[in-house]
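Thread: DUF1788 domain-containing protein, structure

OP (GT): Posting the sequence first so everyone is looking at the same thing. Length is 194 residues per the record. Can we get the structure tokens written out before standup tomorrow? I want them in the notebook alongside the other entries.
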Amino acid sequence: MKTINQRLDEIILRITKENFRKNTGLGNEIGYYIFDYEPRYEMLVREHVQFLKQKINEGDYGYNIKEFDLYEIMLEILESKGYLEKNFKMEQVKGSEFVFNATRKALRITEKDDLIIHYIKERVEKDDIVFITGVGKVWPIIRSHTVLNNLHQVLDEVPVIMFFPGIYDGLELVLFEEIKDDNYYRAFRLVDRY
């Protein structure tokens, strides 16, 4: 089994290959990838994402990495709509489950006009690689398979990599190595664990 550092080091080798950017060699599938990792390595993965962004975006690679932290996007949208402070007060009165459901509705999760998906789509350019982070921080309000399914419908020209604190075996997502998120078949594992 590869160490987390070996796997993290393989990311740059993978994403700098020309065929990665062109999405070739995937049987004409859209380039959606998942980098799954043990949740205990969350801080190490976050640091490495920042390193990759700096190296690629300041280098002469001809493309950029755009990171989208789902938790930060959610907070920004709620704040812009004036809902964030209301959610804090509502949670004290009605509990977390009520706020989770209200937040999903406010973000229009799984709707055609899903605000998270719209936020990402509006900020991606053709020469980008998209990094999706914050998956564990935003659960259970936003689920990773929902983001991937909805994003898959609107973003198909650039590679997308979701950094997933859990296990992805090519069929199902298991968040924190304990919570079965749902089946997802359209993504490839970015770097194998073995």
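GT: Both are above now. Quick notes for whoever picks this up: The beta strands are 32-37, 64-69, 128-133, 160-168, 172-175, 179-183, 188-189. The CA atoms of residues 32 and 89 lie 38 Å apart.
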